[in-house]
Design goal:
Four copies of one chain form a homotetramer. By secondary structure, chain A is of the alpha/beta class. Helices cover 47% and strands 17% of the residues of chain A. Chain A has 16 helices and 14 strands. Chains A, B, C, D: Mn(2+) binds at residues 171, 201.
Chain lengths: 437, 437, 437, 437
C-alpha cells in the first residue's frame, strides 16, 4: 500500500510542529507515509530546524511517517495527494510594512484587511498561481489546501486563474468561534453545530444549534454581556454592544471589529504603534524565540510556547479536513470554496466561506440562501474588493490596484488611498514585478 | 421518558405494514412509543384490518410500541412529534378518473403528472392545508412528513399557505434510483452517493460517486445499454437512447420518460387502456387481494404480496429520515424542501427535491448551483405548473386551473385542455368544493 | 458629405424590393448614398434580376442612391455603416427538407421551430460568424442587422462567438402584432404602444396601451372572440381559446400556436402535406413567379404580388430601426439584443426579443422584470434549446445537436429525435461540414 | 375640458416659486388649471406669503391657472391628477439636530446621508404613508411625485407600504450632473445623453453620449482635471483624484464624496461647524431673508436670491416629468422607481434611481444589468440601510433603527452609533411617536 503523501510549501514555518502533532494524532484515520517540507533558499535554516524537530516528534510518537526536507518544490510535488501552503512572501518584514504605511496615513494597518491585506494578496497571488501550474503538471489529482493569507483572495485567485480547480481555503476563525461558543455554553464542542456563511475573515455564524436545537439568541446575548470574549491572538477583544448583536441576529467573527468598530480599532492601532510597535514586529520576536526552543535536540513534542504565536486550532482544522476528504466522511466543516449559488447574490464562481459537506470529491456547500439584509452590502463590498485585487495581482494594472484600495471600507479617502498605494508599491517593489514591467 | 409519538394520517392505507415493519427495525435508534393510525369514516374497515395487523406485527417483534386506531384526527395529533400523511382524496376511483379522462382526449393520463396530477393536487391541497391548521394548534413543534402525491405540489402548498413551516415531502424515486445504480454497479448501496436535484418526479441524479470517485458517465452508459432498467412499478421501463443519455450527462428519473418519450408513453397508455384498463383499476384489484391477506389473524409480518403494490423503499426512506431528524444525524438524504437558493433560477421559496443534510432542525439543502442548461427550462415549466396549480387549489379560480392545465408539457392543446378541465371538474365535483362556490 | 453605405448580404432575395421601397420612402431621414447588394455565385441570376429592378425603382423615385451588385462580399463590406443579412443557406430546397423529414416521423416540420429550425440554425450560424469576421476587419464600426432566420439563435451566436458585438436581430412578428392590435381596436397604430418580451418567435405582448392607458385585457378578449385573427402568412390562424387568453393575461405571438396548439398544428401540417406539400415548395413556386414579374423592364415599383410571399412590415421595421440608430432617435422598438438583465431569469448575455430604446449606441432594452410565471419555463426551455443549438453549430458536436433536438418541446421522443437528427444530418451534409470532419 | 389638477403638499416651501415658474413656462404642453398649495398649521404664514407670490406670478404671466391655498389636505387631494410632496417634518430645526448630534460624536452629520438621513427618514416616512392613504381614497389615479428627502428611502417606503403604487421619487442630482457635463464639454445639454444607475444620492453616470457617441472617458478626465467641479450647493466641491476616476470608469455623483472622501468630508464638516455652524442654520438664515423678499407685493417673478438656496433644476425636473407623463412622451429621464430587475443584484421591488422611459403609465426603467463590480457592494449596503430604515420607521423597532444606524458606512462604531441613536431619538421624540409607544 502506497500511503498518503502530503507536501507542505512553506514547511519551515513556525506552525509546522502544530501540523505534525495533528498528523501524528490522526494517524489511524489518516495514514500519512510521506510528509515533504518545502521551502525557499532564504528559509533553509528554519526549514532544517523545524524539520529536525518534526523528525524527532515522529520518531518519539512511533508512527511510520517519513519527513523529507527540500528546497526543490517540483521534486516534492510529484504524485502528492495533498499540498498545503503556508507561505509568507517577503517574510515578516513585509508584514511590518503592510501594517506601518497605512497607519502612517491614518488608515487601518492590518495583515489581512484593508491596504495591508491588499498588498499581501498582490505579493502572494502570483506565487500561488505558479504552484498550481506545477501541481497541474506533477500531481493533477492532488488537493491544494491553502492556509496562506489572505485566504479568501487566494482561493478566489486559484478558482479564477489557477491551473487546478481542486483548491480549498482554510482558516481557523470559524473553528475558533465554534470552540468559544462551546466554552460560553459550557458544553463539549461536539454538541454544538454552527452554520457559517460569508467570506474569509468576514464570516458570520448564522445559526447555532446545541444538540440540534437553535440557541443563536442565547449565544448573542452571552457574547454581548461583556463577560466573555471571542477573538484571535492578533485582534484586540473589544466588547460588542449587546443591543447591536441582538439587532444583528447573527454572530460576527473577530475580524468584524475592523468594520463595526472601525473608529475604535484605528485609535487602538495608533496607540499600540506608539507603545509597542506593529504586531508584525512582535511576531518577529516571538518567532525568534520559538526557533531557539525548536533547536533543542531533546525537544520531541510541540512546545507550549507555540501558543503565543496564534493560529489556535489550525492543526485540528487541517487534519480533520484532510481526513474527511481522504475517508469521504461527508461531515460538515466551514471552508473557503466556490460559491456555486450557496450564497444568493454573490457570483456563482466566487470564493466564499461556508459550511460544507466534506467528501472525497471535495467540499459541497450547504445552501445559505440570501444573507441577512443587514450584512449583504458589506459582504458584497469585500467580495468586490477581492475580485479587483485578484485582477490587479494577475495583470499588474495600477488602476485596478488603486480601485481595490479605494473601495475598501477601511480606506476612507481616494487621495490618501493613492498615496498609500504609491508608497507601498515602492516599498514592496521587489515582490511585485508585475507592476514594474 | 416520554418516547416518540408518530401520527399517520391515512393510516388505513395498504402501505402501513411497510411503515410498521420499518419502525420495528429502527426501534433502537428511533424509540416510537405511540403510533396513531388515523383515517376517515369511509376508511374505517380498512383501518381496522391494517391496524390489527400492525398490532400483531409489533407484538410478535416484541417492541413496546402502542398502536392506536382512530377516526378523530385532532385527538390523535395532540403533542405528536412526527405526522406522516398518506391520504388519497376520493380513493382509487378518483385515480381512475384522473387516468381515464385525459386519455379519452388523447393526452397522457397519469396519477401525478399532467392533467391527472393537476386534479390529484386540486383535491388534496385543501385537505393537507387543513391538517397544517390542526398541527399548528395541537402539535406546533411536530414535523409533517408528507408521502402523499403529488408530493412536490403539496410541499409547495404547505410552504406557501400552510400554518406550519416544518414540512418535508418524501418520495421513493431518488432512493430507488440509488438502489438501482448500486445494483448496476454490483456494489453495496452504502458505497454509492448520488447528488440529486430537481423537483418531485422530475428529479435528476446529477453526480454519482462510488467510494467518493465520480462514476456518472459509467452509470449513464450502463443505463443506456438496454441491459438494465431503472423504473417504478407504475411506469413502463422503456429504454433510454444511449446517445441521448450521454448528451444529457445527468441521470433522468423514471418519470422523465413522460417528457423525453412523450410520444411512446402516450401510445403505450392508449394500448394498455384497451388491453387491461387503467393502472388505477389494476391497483384496486391488488389492494382488494392485499386486504384479504391482511385479515389473516395468523399473519404478523409484512406479507410478500405487498411488493406488487409498488412503493418500494418507502418505509426505509421514511424511517431513516425520521431517525436522522430525531438523532440530529447530519447525514445526506434527498427530500422535498424549500429551495433556499440551492437551485439557482428557481424561486427561493419554492419546493425542490434535492440532497439535504438532515438535522434536528430539519433538512438543509446542499447548493446545486445552476441546473444544466438542457434541463433548466423543463424544470422551470413544471415548477410554474405547480405554482399555478397550488394557486388554483387554494383559490378555486377556474382560469388559474385552466392555465396550469394548458401550460403543462403533457397537455398539448389549449382547446382540448379546456375540455379535459371541464369534464374533470364535473367528475370530481364532490372533492372540489372550492370551484363550485 | 459621405452619406450612408448599406450592404445587404443575400441581396438577390425576393424581399429586396421591399427594402428598396422603404429606403426610398425614408430617404429624407436616412440618406443612403450606396446600397450594395451581395450574393453568392449560385444566386447571380436572381441578384441581377432583383438588382436591376432596384435600380429602376431608385431612378423612378429620383433619389441619389447608388445600387451596386456584386458577388464579392469583402469588397462590398469595406467601410459599410450598416450590414443587413437575409441569406438562406441551401436555398428553398433545404427548407423543404427541414419541413419534410420531421413530419415523416410524426413531428412538427417548420422553418424556424423544432427540428427544422435547429437545422436552419446549424447551417446558417457558421456563415453568419464568418460575416462577422469580415466585418471586424473591413467595417468594425458598422451595425449588423440580421433578418435571417432563426433570428434569435443567430443573434445568440453572434453575441457569444461573433467577432463584432454590434448586432441586432430583427423580425416582423412584433410589428405585425402591433398592427393587428391597432386594426382590432380600429385606431391608428401610432396611438398603440405594446411592450414586448420573450424570444424571437416566442415573444409576448405583455402590456398594450392605447393613448397611454392599458387596454391589454380588452385586446385579449377581442383576440379570443374568434372574430379577428393575428397570424403570419406561413402560420394557419387557428383560434385561441378565449378563456385561455384571459388566464394567460399576455398576448401570445402567432408562433405560439406551435406550443399551445401543438396537437392541432401537427395534425394540420400532416393534412397539408398530403394535400398541397410543404410550405417551402409553395414558396418556391411563388418565388419563381415573382422573379418573372421582377424581370419586366417596365416595372419600377414593388409589385403587389410580393405580398403573397409574407414578410409584411419587414421593410418598415428595417428602415425605422436603421433610421433611429442613424439619428439617435431614442424611440422604442422591439428587437433581438443582449438581455443585459432586462428579463430576470434569462442569462445576462442571452439574446432576447424585447422593447428597446433605439440610440446611436444601439438598442437599450427596457427592464421587463420576471416573466409571468405561466410562461417562464417555456421561454427558458426554448432559450436552452437555442444555446445548445449554437454550441452544436459552432463545435459540430453530434451529442450537443442530439441534446438540442431532444429537449425541444416540439420533439417528443428521444429515440425518434435521434432518427430525425441522423437523417437530416445526412440530407444537409453539404452545408454542415462541421459535423463531418 | 377639465384641465390638470396638481396638489403640492408642503406648498409653503421656499421652493414653490421655482415650481410655479416652471408650470408657467410649460403651460402649453401641461395645462394646469388648478394648483393647490397645502401646508400644516405651523406653516400657515409661509404658505400665505409664498401663495400670494404664486398668485402674482400667474397673474403676471397671464396663464389661467388657479392657485388654491389650504391647510385641509384631504379637501385638496380630491380628484387630483398629480400630487407633489416637499415637506420637512420638524422644519429646519430638526435638520440642525440631524447635522449636529452625529458631529458631536465624530461622525458625519448630513441631511440625507448617515445618521442624519436616517432620522429624516424615520420622521418623514409615517407622514408620506399617511398621504398615500388619503390618495388611495381621494385620488386613486393620481401620481405621487415626491421631492422630499431622503427621496430614495421614501420611495422605498411607499413601494413597500404605501396604499398607492403610482409613486416617483425625484431628485435634481442627475439633472445637475447632466448640465455640468454639458458645460464641461461646452455643448448644449440636448446633445448630451447620460445613462444613470444607482440609488438616490448614490447614483452614477454609467455612460455619457455626445450626439450618440460615447464620451465617458473624456468626461471622467475633465472631471479629474481639477479645473471643473460637479457639485451641489450643500456639498463642498472637493476634487476627485484623476486616477481614481479613470479606474472607476463611471461618474460619481456629488454625494459620493461622503464615501470616497469620508475622511476629508468629516474633517471639513468639523471645521465648518466650528467656523460657521451647520448647513441647516445657514439655510434657516437664507430662508428668512427669502421670505422677506417674497413678501414684496411688487414681486411677481421668481427672485434671483432663490438660487442661493440650492435646488437648481428642481422645477425643470418636475415639470418635464409631469409633462412627459401627461403627454405619454416616452422620453428618457432619471427618476426613482421600482427596480423591476433593471439593476441586477438589487431586489426586484426596491427603489432605484435609473434612466427611465416616461409614459402615461409611468416610468419604465431601462435595463442596466450588473453594476460595475467596484460599486456593487457600496450600493447594496446603502440599499440595505434604506430597507432597514424603512422597517424601523414603520414598526418603531429600536433594534432595527440601531441596525440601520450601525451598518451605515458613515457610522464607524457600534458603540458610538448607539449613543447617537439614543440622543437623536430623544431630541426628535415629538416627531417619532412610533418609537415611544
Ligand atoms: Mn484566517
Ligand atoms: Mn413519488
Ligand atoms: Mn421572424
Ligand atoms: Mn436629492
Amino acid at each position: 500500500m502506497k500511503g498518503i503523501k502530503i507536501v507542505t510549501i512553506g514547511g519551515g514555518s513556525s506552525y509546522t510542529p502544530e501540523l505534525v502533532e495533528g498528523l501524528i494524532q490522526y494517524y489511524d484515520e489518516l495514514p500519512v507515509r510521506e510528509l515533504w517540507l518545502v521551502d525557499i533558499p532564504e528559509g533553509k535554516e528554519k526549514l532544517e530546524i523545524v524539520g529536525n524537530l518534526a523528525k524527532r516528534m515522529v520518531k518519539k510518537a512511533g508512527v511510520p511517517m517519513n519527513i523529507h526536507l527540500t528546497l526543490d518544490r517540483r521534486a516534492a510535488l510529484e504524485d502528492a495527494d495533498f499540498v498545503t501552503t503556508q507561505i509568507r512572501v517577503g517574510q515578516l518584514d513585509a508584514r511590518i510594512i503592510d501594517e506601518s504605511i497605512p497607519l502612517k496615513y491614518g488608515m487601518i494597518g492590518q495583515e489581512t484587511n484593508g491596504a495591508g491585506g491588499l498588498f499581501k494578496g498582490l505579493r502572494t497571488i502570483p506565487i500561488i498561481l505558479e504552484i498550481t501550474k506545477d501541481m497541474a503538471e506533477l500531481c493533477p489529482k492532488a488537493w491544494l489546501i491553502n492556509f496562506t493569507n489572505p485566504a479568501g483572495m487566494l482561493t478566489e485567485a486559484v478558482l479564477r486563474y489557477g491551473k487546478i480547480k481542486k483548491v480549498i481555503g482554510l482558516c481557523n476563525v470559524p473553528i475558533g468561534m465554534e470552540m468559544t461558543i462551546a466554552n460560553m455554553l459550557e458544553v463539549d464542542s461536539s454538541r454544538i453545530h454552527v452554520e457559517f456563511a460569508g467570506l474569509n475573515h468576514m464570516v458570520f455564524g448564522t445559526h447555532v444549534y446545541l444538540d440540534g436545537m437553535e440557541v443563536t439568541a442565547q449565544v448573542l446575548d452571552l457574547l454581548g454581556s461583556g463577560k466573555v470574549s471571542m477573538t484571535m491572538k492578533n485582534i484586540i477583544g473589544l466588547d460588542w454592544d449587546r443591543d447591536f448583536l441582538k439587532a444583528l441576529k447573527i454572530i460576527p467573527c473577530p475580524y468584524h471589529r475592523y468594520y463595526y468598530k472601525h473608529k475604535e480599532m484605528l485609535e487602538h492601532e495608533l496607540e499600540e504603534l506608539k507603545k509597542t510597535g506593529t504586531r508584525g514586529a512582535a511576531v518577529k520576536q516571538i518567532e525568534k524565540e520559538l526557533f531557539e526552543v525548536y533547536k533543542d535536540p531533546d525537544l520531541a513534542v510541540k512546545p507550549s510556547q507555540l501558543e503565543n504565536r496564534g493560529g489556535a486550532y489550525y492543526s485540528y482544522a487541517a487534519c480533520r479536513l484532510i481526513r474527511s476528504i481522504y475517508n469521504d466522511k461527508r461531515d460538515i466543516q466551514p471552508v473557503n470554496v466556490r460559491n456555486n449559488g450557496a450564497i444568493i447574490g454573490l457570483p456563482e464562481g466566487a470564493a466564499v466561506e461556508v459550511s460544507c459537506m466534506i467528501t472525497k470529491d471535495g467540499p459541497k456547500p450547504l445552501a445559505v440562501g440570501e444573507l441577512p439584509v443587514a450584512v449583504r452590502g458589506l459582504v458584497q463590498q469585500i467580495k468586490s474588493f477581492e475580485q479587483l485585487a485578484v485582477e490587479a495581482a494577475v495583470t499588474g494594472d495600477y488602476h485596478l490596484a488603486l480601485l481595490a484600495m479605494t473601495i475598501h471600507p477601511l480606506v476612507t479617502s481616494d487621495v490618501i488611498g493613492k498615496k498609500i498605494l504609491n508608497e507601498m508599491l515602492e516599498a514592496h517593489k521587489k515582490y511585485l514585478p508585475q507592476f514594474f514591467r
